[in-house]
Structures are given as structure tokens and as C-alpha cells.
Write a structure and sequence with these properties.
By secondary structure, the chain is α/β, with parallel strands linked by helices. A hairpin with a 5-residue loop joins strand 3 and strand 4. Helix 5 packs across helix 6. The relative contact order is 0.12.
Length: about 350
């Protein structure tokens, strides 16, 4: 029987492990300290557990931490790490240093089923859900872990399509038994699956980012098929009804496509859509990939778009392009590895 990874289990999960193994309840807290607060990689290193307890754990469980299998570094300091995923697939994590900030972009799924027109990951199709441990391992096994200031769930996959595991990973990252990170340092990005969005807003204090990309429903439907199921008015209604307070932030991701979503009409509709909402719009240059029917807007157009939003009171920033020389966009490196694996097998 395949052993279960301890890493990625919540304190409640660990208490159930101890109950099953007939270990004292307090041992669960000892195990969580070893998993999330100390730099060890095996059950045998949990030295304040009895020898018998370690033997019982080793029979059914493994520690569950895995180092990346490949790394690429950009000339701008961005690093992309490749991790082995279930069924010989791959996931990506991108480390982005920027002056006093260091952000890690983590994945939540292997592939993605959402089929957004502009996304390379979606071309892979959906392969598997990442467990809480596989999500948090991207942080735990990062060579630059001690330098991290921020985490964004903006890598491969749709976080709200893997809600239970994402929520458990957030618990581990922010709880006192876990990594004790401030939720203000974590942002979860979603295309807007509204039932999951409601749960996330209610049960987490982390920041929210919505992949918007156009303020027009019919246009968004062409770019993002999810609009057929969870439409923009419904998403905005959930957001407007939630009290974000002064500390929690909602932002909107807006990849700019030449001649598609970068016109004055889009600026006008964006102002109407976001009027009165305390938020930020992140404008992102699109980098075309093979087979994509879309082109990125030029810098002048992006700057004009940003300036006009700011003039209307909609806070807008232009996200700097990072790691272009190492295929830092989500899905490109893992897709390349999948193709290579297929070529070898064929």
C-alpha cells in the first residue's frame, strides 16, 4: 500500500492520525512543529517523539517534501522551478525578486480544465488536483524560501476548482501551528467560480485577484468559457456584497490583447463596472505563444489605458514583464517537458 504524506496535513488531520495510531493527542502538535517549523525531511528526525511513535508513523506515512527537479534563471533574476507531479506530470513555480519584495507564484493544479484562450496551461488539459502538501511543498522546498515576502496563487490551474485543497494549504501557511504567514502576504487568483468565491471570502482573510480581461460579457465568453456558467454580473455581485475592510484587497487581472480589449470603449466600460469599488487593476502585457490567435497590446496603448483608468479614479498599475527569456509564463516550461517526455516514450 502506498504511504501517505504527512506534509500537507492540517492539525486536525494530524490529530486523526494520532487517534488512528493510538498515540497521545499532543503528539499531533509535535508532528506539526516538525513538519512546518523545522528544516527536516524524514520522520526519523522527529526526535521528541518516542521510537515506537516514529516506527508506527513510518509504517503508514512518509514525510512528503520533494525538491524541484529543474530550475531556470532569467537575466532579470526571475527563477522558474519545475516539480514532479502525479502520474509523471509536471508543475511550475516562479520566484520573482523585486527590490525588497520576493514573490512566489505557485500552482494549484496539474494542467487546467477552464480552456481560456490565452492560457498555455489550458492547452495541456486537466491532469490532476494538487494536494495541500503538493501546493505548500512549492514554498517549503524553494531554495529562496527565507527571502519570500509574498505568495500568489497564480500559477498553473484554477485555485477555486481545487477549493478544499487550496483552503487547507492556506490554513497551513497562515495558522499558528503552520508557517504563521500573514494572510495579507498571500493573494489567490481566480477566474470567478462564484460558489467557491463565496466560501473563500467567508473562510479566508487572504487577498483576492479576479481574472477579468474584459468588462464585456460576450467578449469574456469568447476568451474564457467559464463565463457561460459563472458570469461577470454574478461575480461582481458577490464581490460588492462582501466587506473587505481596510486591510484586505481585491484586484482585477487584465491581460491586454491588441485590438481585442484595449479600446476606449473598454476603458469606459471598466469604469462603469468598477465604479465605487475600492480595488486595483493590474494591466499585463500578453506574450504570444505558438498557436495563439492573440497578440499583445503595445506599450503605448497599455500606458494610455492605465492613465485613463487612473484619471477616472480606478487605481491601475502596469505589471512589469519578468522572466521572458526562461518561458516564465504559466505552463510553458511544463508543456515543454511533457512534449520531451512524449518524444522519448514514442
Amino acid at each position: 500500500m502506498e504511504k501517505i504524506a504527512l506534509f500537507g496535513l492540517t492539525l486536525t488531520d494530524l490529530q486523526e492520525v494520532c487517534k488512528d495510531l493510538k498515540l497521545p493527542k499532543f503528539v499531533a502538535k509535535q508532528i506539526s512543529d516538525w513538519l512546518y517549523k523545522k528544516n527536516i525531511t524524514s520522520i526519523d528526525e522527529m526526535t521528541n517523539l518516542s521510537k515506537k511513535a516514529r516506527e508506527l508513523l513510518n509504517e503508514k506515512y512518509t514525510f512528503g517534501v520533494h525538491a524541484p527537479i529543474k530550475a531556470q534563471e532569467s537575466t532579470d533574476g526571475t527563477k522558474k522551478y519545475l516539480y514532479q507531479a502525479p502520474n509523471r506530470n509536471f508543475i511550475e513555480t516562479v520566484y520573482i525578486p523585486d527590490k525588497e519584495r520576493a514573490t512566489l507564484c505557485v500552482s494549484s493544479q496539474v494542467g487546467c480544465k477552464m480552456g481560456c484562450l490565452f492560457c498555455v496551461t489550458g492547452k495541456q488539459g486537466f491532469q490532476a488536483q494538487l494536494t495541500p502538501g503538493e501546493i505548500v511543498n512549492q514554498i517549503r522546498s524553494l531554495p529562496e524560501r527565507e527571502k519570500l515576502t509574498n505568495i500568489v496563487y497564480m500559477g498553473m490551474g484554477e485555485p477555486f476548482d481545487n477549493l478544499d485543497n487550496v483552503m487547507k494549504s492556506l490554513e497551513i501557511l497562515t495558522s499558528d501551528y503552520g508557517f504563521e504567514m500573514s494572510p495579507r502576504r498571500i493573494t489567490v487568483s481566480s477566474i470567478g467560480i462564484t460558489p467557491a468565491l463565496q466560501t473563500f471570502l467567508k473562510d479566508s482573510n487572504c487577498h483576492l485577484a479576479i481574472s477579468l480581461h474584459t468588462p464585456f460579457e460576450d467578449e469574456r465568453r469568447k476568451l474564457m468559457p467559464v463565463e457561460n456558467v459563472y458570469n461577470l454580473p454574478e461575480i461582481m455581485d458577490v464581490i460588492r456584497k462582501h466587506d473587505f475592510g481596510l486591510q484586505r484587497r481585491v484586484s482585477f487581472e487584465y491581460i491586454m490583447f491588441k485590438g481585442v480589449n484595449d479600446t476606449p470603449a473598454h476603458i469606459k466600460q471598466m469604469c462603469k463596472l468598477l465604479n465605487g469599488l475600492r480595488c486595483r487593476v493590474n494591466l499585463i502585457k500578453f506574450h504570444a505563444f505558438d498557436g495563439s490567435p492573440l497578440e499583445g497590446s503595445d506599450r503605448q496603448t497599455i500606458e494610455y489605458f492605465s492613465n485613463k483608468l487612473n484619471e477616472k479614479g480606478i487605481r491601475s498599475t502596469i505589471r512589469a514583464s519578468r522572466g521572458e527569456d526562461i518561458l516564465a509564463a504559466c505552463g510553458l516550461l511544463s508543456t515543454k517537458e511533457l512534449v520531451k517526455r512524449k518524444d522519448i516514450e514514442d
